[in-house]
Design brief:
The complex is a heterodimer.
Chain A lengths: L16 H8 L12 E5 L3 H13 L2 E5 L17 E2 L11 H11 L6 H20 L25 E2 L5 H19 L2 E4 L2 E9 L2 E9 L5 E5 L2 E4 L20 H8 L4 E2 L4 E7 L22 E5 L16 E2 L1 H5 L9 H16 L8 E4 L1 H7 L1 H19 L8 E10 L2 E2 L12 E3 L17 H21 L13 H20 L5 H16 L5 H21 L11 H25 L23 H4 L1 E6 L8 E6 L14
Parallel strand pairs in A: 1-2, 1-9, 2-5, 9-17
Antiparallel strand pairs in A: 3-4, 6-7, 7-8, 10-16, 10-18, 11-15, 12-13, 12-14, 14-15, 18-19
Helix pairs in contact in A: 2-5, 2-11, 3-4, 4-11, 9-10, 13-14, 13-15, 14-15
Chain B lengths: L20 E11 L6 E12 L4 H14 L22 E2 L2 E2 L21 E5 L8 E3 L2 E2 L2 H8 L21 H11 L6 H5 L6 H12 L8 H15 L8 H5 L7 H23 L1
Parallel strand pairs in B: 1-5
Antiparallel strand pairs in B: 1-2, 3-4, 3-5, 6-7
The chains are: A alpha+beta, B alpha+beta.
């Protein structure tokens, strides 16, 4: 019984698909919307915007977050900005150009129709957020300011200082708060979703563990929406928040939702390197620093002089030498891989020799310290706070880190997974960024899905269900799932092993980073496929979780998540092994051009790899959704 | 108790002999639950790398406690880059510790000296009950936002974003206020446990914008009165702004006071016209 994936892409020219679709989907009468209950899991940009918008329409919404407040979701940490094809700068931008750039940036591994819609509704997002009072940067005339971001040739990025994600999230959170006060949304905080309940092939509810009391309970609804973010913490060290996890998405996968393109991960080139073994997370420094900073390492691996004393001839400006046209501004994946290459060659800098220099001496000499301070002052301060080094005097040290995951639950054009009634929004799904995400596009996608896509498409599924009650929570499907979650959680306390949850998470991260990080090859991936199951086995037999299951217990929260990462990591590696090409964030060393660039194989790999769960003892089955490009011409990227 | 020698633990020996480390005497508040009595645990924390953050120091302590079969210390944390507002403890009596404009997660151990004693407690305020150890419940903040901390603009109703110009200085002023991360340090620092700075940051953000005008007076009255139902009164000590990791200015409390006073008059007049 193989799964068949139908993307349900509407007919017609690309620019008319969404309008046609909105007309053809079934509607739920305004007076009947309150008769449908929708469970929204996750309250970041995608979840909060969906919860607010669905409640405004009249649906009964229940929202779930494991945080103490929806405002803590990791969307809050996005710095740079949000793209929209407003063409306010009169510089030639259009919906079609944003669409084209996004498909190309994704290295031709995304679904055209979804991306076009994303570019289309980007216009509405900015309007919506401005109306909510998001304090976007303004020009003196009071109109919105823009900047160019991530190598785009037009200025289409809207921003709120370096805190765009924070301000957009607060906008969505506040819209949801208004609906909480009005009774349209019921919020469950400190509620960890540990399973998805499927009955007769349709999603009908979730199993939640209360993180304060440990109580495991069932929630039932007509539809379940997952907006639970990405899986970057499979690497342990990443720029993700500590509690970001794959659990809800993974549990949905185990209940039948296919997981697409898990090997696609974005590595961000400008993060602060780890300082010691106890490092818990990595901090991103804005990409804008590459506009003025020059990246180099000493030519000699025995170099002992301070950076400033190394003469020009002994410095290796590797990006400028290899890519004279783009220099330090090559795309994220190219910059990251080249940093890894020089560090692997033993040329790394810093006490652990795990970074490269990002040097501002030239721009300070040219423009003066005050100009640099005005442009980057807050970033320089942040760097100094974390490292204790003054980047005005000595160069910054940077190294790539995991930042975003393009893969996720497979969804159709309606954002529904292959399990009817189960939706996936934002970073949690796979649909819009292909194999690589462009800067300032994550915020755009999260809000597009929540504000402007799901509220239209969910009615199509719900309308025929009018008059049916949600499955009662005393149904055997629910009671069995509650018992399963409770047993699994309590089971960890009985292991009484010798090593902590964090230890195993860190060990897993090392394997995945080493063999399935910035560059992958068959030998390494095969090695990971033996090491991960061995580690998982040891973890399950030897992890030590103290305390009780009936109170707040952070180790117990983490152990379920790490367990799911252990399984997810294996699928990620298998996906990377099967994809015998290089594309975007997936670089297979066997598949590169003579210049060392990613070499796609469009003939054999222009498809979405969706993996179907076959049970705990059998590997997932690969299901392909072919990608057809009717509007965008496939080309090889070149930055020479 | 001793926190062990760290050897043999997974996170134990970093193998970086050259890295400077600290030995600290920690007094950490432990409390099993909201209604349980609490007490300080003394921990001899040695070999703490000075480049690690305050929360990473607690991670190391926890790893060593686990090794000794002692339940690790519960503390709230998430992004560890000073923006989510989840973390926050009292460090030697100060919310977020000694460094100005710095959340607990961004405080690094090099700010301390070898041999220092560090007293670590949860934020103390009646409206922030302790959940466990160093973790408190700050949901009262959400109640304040729900009472009016928003601009009603249902999805789909917005005019073009450039239809309503916002003078740059007004947008900048609003952004200064909107930078609040909702950590609760202001409440913890206040001798009255007042939440004026938190509430004023949201009012200062929304009430100055053109988009925020239609609901301005309703918002001011509702938010201030919800705040007062949970928190103490402001007597202008100014401790809040000193403790604020985002340096939200006291000026916003002046905006709050002005708008609340005006709102009481205006809302009454509007009501009498109805």
């Amino acid at each position: 019984m193989s799964v068949v994936l139908d993307a349900k892409v509407p007919d017609g020219p690309i620019a008319e698909k969404w309008d046609n679709h909105k007309f053809s989907v079934k509607l739920v009468n305004p007076a009947n919307k309150r008769r449908f209950k929708i469970l929204v899991v996750g309250t970041g940009l995608a979840g909060a915007s969906a919860a607010a918008s669905l409640a405004e329409l009249g649906y009964e919404v229940e929202a779930f977050t494991f945080h103490d407040s929806p405002r803590r979701a990791h969307s809050i940490a996005a710095q740079g900005g949000i793209n929209a094809a407003k063409n306010y700068r009169n510089d030639g931008d259009s919906v079609y150009r944003l669409f084209y750039d996004t498909v190309k940036g994704g290295d031709y591994r995304s679904r055209e129709a979804n991306v076009y819609r994303l570019a289309d509704v980007s216009l509405n997002i900015i309007d919506q957020c401005a109306a909510q009072g998001v304090p976007f940067a303004r020009e003196y005339g009071g109109l919105l300011a823009n900047r160019s971001f991530g190598g785009a040739q037009v200025s289409r990025t809207f921003y709120a200082r370096g805190q765009t994600g924070q301000q957009l999230l607060l906008g969505a959170y506040q819209a949801m708060a208004a609906q909480i006060a009005a009774g349209g949304v019921t919020l469950n905080n400190r509620a960890d979703v540990l399973d998805i309940v499927v009955k007769d092939g349709e999603a009908c509810g979730i199993i939640v563990r209360d993180l304060l009391t440990g109580e495991v309970r069932a929630h039932s609804g007509h539809a379940v929406v997952l907006a639970t973010g990405g899986y970057g913490n499979v690497y342990y060290l990443s720029t993700n928040a500590m509690n970001c996890n794959v659990t809800a998405a993974w549990r949905a996968h185990r209940r039948g939702a296919t997981f697409a393109n898990p090997c696609y991960t974005q590595i961000h080139p400008t993060c602060i390197p780890a300082s010691d073994e106890f490092q818990s997370k990595l901090t991103l420094m804005s990409e804008s620093l590459r506009n003025d900073g020059r990246i180099w390492v000493p030519r000699n691996m025995d170099e002992s002089r301070a950076a400033a004393d190394v003469p020009g001839a002994d410095r290796y400006y590797f990006l400028e030498e290899k890519y004279p046209a783009f220099g330090n501004l090559v795309p994220r994946d190219v910059a990251s891989r080249n940093a890894k290459t020089v560090v692997d060659q033993g040329l790394g800098v810093g006490p652990l020799r795990n970074g490269v220099y990002l040097d501002f001496a030239d721009v300070i000499a040219r423009d003066g310290e005050s100009v640099v301070r005005e442009k980057y002052g807050n970033l320089f301060d942040m760097y100094e706070r974390i490292t204790g080094e003054d980047p005005y005097r000595s160069p910054m040290r940077i190294y790539p880190a995991t930042h975003y995951t393009m893969g996720g639950l497979w969804v159709d054009y309606n954002l529904m997974t292959n399990v009817p009634g189960l939706y996936a929004l934002g970073e949690c799904n796979f649909s819009d960024h292909g194999a690589n995400r462009l800067g300032a596009s994550a915020l755009m996608q999260g809000l597009a899905d929540g504000y402007f896509v799901l509220p239209y498409t969910i009615g199509d599924y719900l309308a025929p269900k009018l008059g049916s009650a949600p499955v009662p929570v005393d149904d055997p499907a629910f009671t069995a799932a509650v018992a399963e979650v409770d047993d699994r959680t309590r089971g960890w306390l009985a292991v009484r092993g010798t090593r902590s949850v964090d230890y195993y998470h860190r060990e897993l991260g090392k394997i995945v980073w080493e063999y399935c990080g910035m560059a992958r090859n068959r030998t390494g991936l095969e090695k990971a496929l033996t090491e991960i199951p061995a580690l998982r086995e040891e973890f399950r037999a030897n992890v030590k979780v103290l305390g009780s299951a009936d109170t707040t217990n952070q180790s117990l929260e983490q152990v379920n998540r790490v367990d799911d990462f252990m399984e997810m990591a294996e699928l990620k590696v298998r996906d990377a092994l099967h994809r015998e090409e290089s594309c975007g964030g997936h670089f297979r060393e066997e598949h590169q051009t003579p210049e060392g660039e990613a070499l796609r194989d469009d003939e054999n790999f222009a498809y979405v790899a969706a993996w179907d769960w076959q049970g705990p003892d059998r590997p997932q089955e690969l299901v392909k959704e072919p990608l057809e490009f009717e509007n965008v011409k496939l080309t090889q990227r070149s930055y020479k | 108790m001793s926190a062990g020698n760290g050897s043999g633990s997974g996170a134990g020996s970093a193998g970086n002999g050259h890295q400077a480390t600290l030995r600290l005497r920690l007094r950490i508040w432990r409390q099993a639950g909201p209604d349980e009595p609490g007490a300080f645990l003394d921990v001899d924390a040695h070999d703490i790398p000075e480049d690690c953050s305050f929360l990473e120091m607690l991670d190391i302590v926890n790893e060593r406690l686990i090794e000794h079969d002692v339940e690790p210390i519960t503390f709230a944390h998430d992004c560890r880059e000073g923006i989510c507002g989840t973390c926050g403890v009292m460090i030697n009596g100060r919310p977020h510790g000694p460094e100005k404009a710095t959340a607990t997660c961004q405080l690094h151990m090099r700010k301390f000296r070898d041999g220092d004693q560090i007293v670590i407690e949860p934020f103390r305020a009646a409206s922030f009950p302790v959940v466990k150890d160093l973790m408190v419940d700050r949901r009262a903040f959400d109640r304040i936002i729900e009472s009016g901390g928003f601009i009603s603009a249902p999805t789909g109703t917005a005019p073009d974003a450039n239809e309503i110009p916002v003078p740059k200085d007004v947008a900048d002023f609003a952004m200064d206020a909107a930078a609040c991360i909702g950590c609760g340090a202001c409440v913890a620092a206040c001798p009255n446990s007042a939440a004026q700075l938190f509430t004023a940051a949201k009012l200062g953000h929304l009430n100055v914008l053109p988009q925020g005008q239609p609901e301005r007076w309703r918002r001011a009255e509702a938010m201030v009165e919800t705040m007062e139902s949970f928190f103490g009164s402001c007597t202008n000590h100014g401790e809040c702004t000193e403790a604020c990791p985002k340096e939200i200015s006291l000026d916003f409390i002046a905006v709050l006071n002005r708008d609340y006073l005006k709102a009481k008059v205006k809302n009454r007049r509007l009501a009498s016209q109805a």
